[in-house]
Amino acid sequence: MKQMLIESIKNLFSKPATLKYPLEPSPTPPNYRGFIVYKKELCIFCTKCEMVCPPGAIRFTYNEDDTKEFHYNPYLCIYCGECIRACPKPGCLTHAQEAAPPATATTIPDWDSLEKKADESKRAWLASKKKKK
């Protein structure tokens, strides 16, 4: 009991072992995988990132003019980095140091309807390709 009291008094006057979080930001660990950054100008629209994404956070929609559109849901992403490893174009998909912004009712995309739209557009695109042959 006496030793515990002495240790408690020592701890009152010693430097804290934890970080002062609100005042000092936490250091990022080495090999941190943060928010996925997509650069449209480098993308070749091969859809490899969509195929390897485990949670399905990346989807492509196919437009009628044979263009594709990239969609990314940071709130579904598990930040595994598989999309970055699968991308054949260096720099198209990269990790940023910051995390995804906090989710609010206005920032969360309607991912269910976007997935349905992506599936329908892909089916229509494949059907049009078969008709051309």
Structural class: alpha+beta
**CATH architecture classification:** 2-Layer Sandwich
Count of DSSP-assigned helices: 4
Share of residues in helices? 25-40%
The top level CATH class name: Alpha Beta
- The topology string of helices and strands comes to HEHEEHEH
How many beta-strand segments? 4
End-to-end Cα distance, whole Å, is 86 Å
The residue ranges in which pLDDT falls below 50 over 5 or more consecutive positions are none
Shape: elongated
Instruction: Give the biggest beta sheet.
Output: 2 strands, antiparallel
Rg is 23 Å
**Beta-strand level of the residues, as a percent range?**
5-15%
How would you write the strand order of the largest sheet?
1-4
Q: Roughly what is the average pLDDT, rounded to an integer?
A: 85
* Total separate domains: 1
CATH fold description: Alpha-Beta Plaits
